[in-house]
Design a protein that fits this description.
By secondary structure, this protein is of the alpha/beta class. Helices cover 36% and strands 28% of the residues.
């Protein structure tokens, strides 16, 4: 067997093994403050997490893996079809041009996930806003004609004037999620796409700690479990709901569900997909 064949075989075995170890996240606690939850968790800002996500993303970029999510590589892409269709819908209304902010978008996980279906667009600008460590490595190893990296949302919006912001598995990890929603509206984004976000069906918003499955990486992260109805009422003040859908993640809790939304800045004429 040639070296190339050996590496391909090893990569294939690794991908199959990785697919078997994805388990649902677990949530614990009802903390009084974000600071209290932070003290009870390791947090996301870790060099170990950065390195694992970087290595997995590099495999995708270099063609050694098909798809990456949360530092785990897969041998096939798992699409969020509502997200992809909304990106195409938005682009079709803007001369087949798509200018997007992917907030907390790692090294371009969602870009690589959807790039095949977006390759025909007249213009594609995929701008990622991330932590400093991701931005530094992103600019060095992942920046291309489509991918750009920023460490500040205001700077990104001022520079790129994007139409849409994608928040995939990110709002729950912000200390002040409602302030963030207000920020999006004040900047003037026409569309918001929210995906892979956990909500509770009954009870008030609460702060918990999410335990990441050890098969991904050893970490625990403070997070919000927002009440679904309360969140929808809050965001509807500025944005109209176009589509609501169930996210890809699963969890063994009848009061908890992962959801996604496609939202558009309020205007006189309403329309739904």
């Amino acid at each position: 067997m040639t070296m190339a064949g050996y590496l391909a075989c090893r990569t294939k075995k690794f991908l199959k093994a990785a697919n078997k170890f994805i388990t649902a996240p677990t949530f614990s606690g009802d903390y009084g403050t974000w600071e209290e939850a932070s003290r009870s968790s390791t947090g996301y800002n870790s060099q170990v997490i950065l390195e694992k996500v970087f290595d997995a993303s590099l495999k995708v970029k270099n063609g050694l893996a098909i798809y990456e999510r949360d530092s785990v590589v897969f041998d096939k892409i798992e699409y969020s079809w509502p997200v992809l269709s909304s990106l195409l819908w938005i682009a079709s209304q803007n001369g087949n041009r798509l200018n997007i902010v992917d907030f907390g978008g790692s090294f371009g996980s969602s870009y690589y996930q959807n790039r095949y279906f977006l390759a025909h667009l007249q213009e594609l600008r995929w701008n990622i806003v991330e932590q400093a460590g991701f931005v530094e490595l992103g600019r060095k190893d992942f920046k291309n004609e489509h991918l750009r990296f920023y460490s500040d949302l205001d700077e990104c919006y001022k520079s790129e004037h994007p139409q849409v912001i994608l928040c995939s598995s990110v709002i729950q990890y912000l200390e002040r999620p409602y302030d963030f929603i207000d920020k999006i509206g004040s900047l003037g984004f026409e569309y918001i796409i929210i995906d892979r976000t956990p909500f509770i069906l009954r009870g008030k918003d609460k702060i918990a700690v999410q335990k990441v499955p050890p098969s991904i990486y050893d970490a625990s992260i403070p997070c919000w479990l927002l009440n679904l109805d309360n969140f929808k009422r809050y965001i509807s003040r500025t944005y109209e709901l176009i589509v609501e859908f169930v996210g890809l993640d699963n969890v063994d809790d009848e009061n908890l569900i992962f959801k996604g939304f496609i939202l558009r800045k309020r205007q006189n004429n309403s329309e739904t997909l």
